[in-house]
Amino acid sequence: MSEEVLDFEREYSPSRWSPRFSTPEQVLQNHVKLVTEASLDAVIKIPHELDIEYGPTSGQKLDIFGTDLPNDARIFVYVHGGYWQELSREISRYPVKPFYRGGIKTIIIGYDLCPTVTLGEIIKEIQNAAKYVFEYAEKMNSRGLYFAGHSAGAHLVSKILDNAELLQNTSGSNRLHGVFLISGVYDLRDLIKTTVNAPLKLNETTAAAFSPILSNYQHIRDSDVFDKIRVHIIVGKHDSPTFQKQSRDFWKVLQSNFGVNAYLDIMENLDHFDIVEALGELENYLKFFISNCFCD
Ligand SMILES: N[C@@H](CC(=O)c1ccccc1NC=O)C(=O)O
């Protein structure tokens, strides 16, 4: 491998940048252990409905937690990461308990992974899931809907935002108040040079077509309905320089080119993994944002 390719490989390997452990393997092992335990705890303790099918394939399922809360409770929706090829809904239920204690329901969205399906298909799955969630929020008369995604999940949530048709023609979409994009990738073109692309098989055309940074967001500013949407782009001070740049560049595009209410939050002392492990803690930055900053 050339020097340049090795650099890309390193920049796009989040576990190599955590200062908390001596090897990348330890970072990942610790992450999977923490999120698995917190997810099991959520299933044991919080009233739920699991494995709700939002589409025909085996990955298209979601879980609703906090089913005993008032119908009009706010809803937090979470999309996990793993470069569209690893992790699962079953071990991504860790944000549930803190939100439940704050009277907020949580919906965990699952999806099929590459190479079983293509990235284009995953994007469509997440948009189907968003349609399901918007209509559920409408049926429940929910006071507010908040979407968050981590890493590849932040990319997928961005692909909900760039879909004008979905946002304008789905009942309940006007209940979307906030979007949190955590340590995401918004420009996929450099991934082609890395091993991340092996199961994805992106080429120049598909990588550009699936890059949220190249999309149009005019509809968000133009529509009265979406005034309320705030987009928080969140990245760790211990994410790689390229991940930090991806967040900064996307934030600039959203707010300068399209006038979206976008905020850039660089989290001191957090890396690619504890930035979401923190969501399992009773008080955390997202719960704070949702409970205090988004009044009806
Ligand atoms: N092989 C990767 C794993 C990884 O990127 C990852 C792991 C868990 C959650 C998100 C991840 N990255 C992007 O979605 C790494 O080097 O850390």
From TrEMBL:
GO terms for molecular function: arylformamidase activity. Keywords: Hydrolase, Tryptophan catabolism. It comes from the Eukaryota. A motif (HGGXW) lies at residues 80-84. One of its GO terms (biological process) is L-tryptophan catabolic process to kynurenine. The keyword Acetylation does not apply. Pathway: Amino-acid degradation; L-tryptophan degradation via kynurenine pathway; L-kynurenine from L-tryptophan: step 2/2. Coiled coil: none annotated. The active site is at 151 (nucleophile), 239, 272. InterPro entries: AB_hydrolase_fold (IPR029058), BD-FAE-like_dom (IPR049492), GDXG_lipolytic_enzyme (IPR050300), KFase_ver/fungi-typ (IPR027519). Its EC number is 3.5.1.9. It catalyses: N-formyl-L-kynurenine + H2O = L-kynurenine + formate + H(+). It holds the Pfam family BD-FAE. Residues 71-242 form the BD-FAE-like domain. Belongs to the kynurenine formamidase family. Homodimer. The main chain amide nitrogen atoms of the second glycine and its adjacent residue in the HGGXW motif define the oxyanion hole, and stabilize the oxyanion that forms during the nucleophilic attack by the catalytic serine during substrate cleavage. Catalyzes the hydrolysis of N-formyl-L-kynurenine to L-kynurenine, the second step in the kynurenine pathway of tryptophan degradation. Required for elimination of toxic metabolites. This is Kynurenine formamidase.
